[in-house]
Amino acid sequence: MTPDLEGRATPGAEVALLAPGHWLLSIPAGPAGQYRLAQLDDYMRLPRAALRWRPPLRLSLRARASGSSLPGTWGFGFWNDPFSARLGVGGTARRLPALPNAAWFFHASPPNYLALHDRHPAQGLLAATFAAPTLPAPALALVAPALPLLAWPPTGRLLRRLAARYVGEDAARLTLDPTVWHSYAVEWRAEGVCFAIDGQAA
Question: How far apart are the C-alpha atoms of 35 and 71, rounded to whole Å?
Fold first, then answer.
């Protein structure tokens, strides 16, 4: 089943439908401090309690990137959009922050740092999971103003260590050329997650 995906892009970026089930996502070059986004999702208009996907299910797609070390982040998989705090404007759902739950292929270039535990890889192309309990949203909303501090190394390290007390994490760095077409699969089961690339376990 192909999910009902909706494209989102910041000015200058593009999500182009080339054919049914085939998209090209592009982001222009620009200043390092300027946020740029090209994204396909099916969750932005949903409240957190209505997010659709539950195990068992399988996500599969073919993809390639235009460079092996693109600045920023890119990837695909399942997640609960944990860090958003929206008021329902612009067609988005009202949503308070949550602890992260995710199963995805994700690429992060320096200085992005996507690991909570120092023993896990945090940059490059990763197969990774986050699993967290549900905590009261109002309590998490109180710490939302501190999220920008993740970008500052001293406080970012402290906040990651605090989150690691509550969030289970696993990750593996992948050694492949992301500029070549590959088939990616994320199989989400009740007992865990399996990743595969070109039919081989990742």
Answer: 12
